[in-house]
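Exercise 7. Given the encoded structure of a 196-residue chain, write a plausible sequence.
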């Protein structure tokens, strides 16, 4: 999760920032639920951009946040070390702004042999065109665009997986918009539960 910070949010115009913050919270909770190694990074947090969104900090209260000076997180050795420590060849990336702080590390990670997924609705750019063109550029380079809800449901995969079922439903109800309301309605009105 890259540069989800106030200064970056102020200029994000490709998406409504309330929706981005909701999606970022859903993405963070998804990663936590499924024990996905998560790297948090900011740029100039104390001198210019502000601290990471509180909804991320709430999910990962004790996690180190790697603060950088470079716009490209892939230029920071601490980020590379954290990626290597995670030991995964698949990366899921979201951040502000899509056209700078997302596209640059994604292109570098692809070049270094990683399989990269970009969470487009937990990211945003200074204009819709800037966001869209950055996503298009990443797709052309080999990245796969996804949404935070798609990621949540792909990780859950089977409603019979009761180990994560309750947490997934809680995330969906809190951050899943109409889908979450549908889940809540089905539970309240009919006692419905997937996978049973």
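Solution.
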């Amino acid at each position: 999760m890259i540069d989800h910070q106030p200064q970056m949010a102020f200029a994000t115009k490709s998406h409504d920032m309330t929706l981005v913050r909701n999606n970022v919270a859903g993405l963070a909770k998804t990663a936590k639920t499924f024990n996905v190694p998560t790297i948090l990074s900011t740029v100039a947090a104390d001198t210019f951009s502000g601290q990471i969104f509180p909804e991320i900090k709430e999910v990962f209260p004790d996690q180190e946040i790697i603060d950088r000076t470079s716009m490209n997180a892939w230029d920071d050795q601490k980020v590379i070390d954290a990626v290597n420590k995670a030991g995964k060849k698949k990366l899921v990336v979201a951040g502000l702004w899509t056209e700078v702080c997302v596209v640059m590390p994604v292109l570098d990670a692809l070049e270094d042999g990683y399989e990269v997924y970009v969470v487009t609705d937990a990211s945003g750019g200074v204009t819709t065109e800037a966001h869209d063109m950055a996503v298009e550029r990443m797709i052309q380079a080999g990245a796969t665009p996804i949404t935070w809800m798609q990621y949540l449901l792909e990780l859950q995969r089977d409603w019979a997986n009761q180990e994560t079922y309750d947490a997934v439903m809680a995330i969906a109800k809190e951050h899943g918009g109409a889908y979450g309301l549908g889940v809540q309605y089905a539970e309240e009105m009919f006692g419905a539960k997937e996978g049973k």
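Remark. The two ends are 34 Å apart (CA to CA). Students should compare their own answers with the one above.
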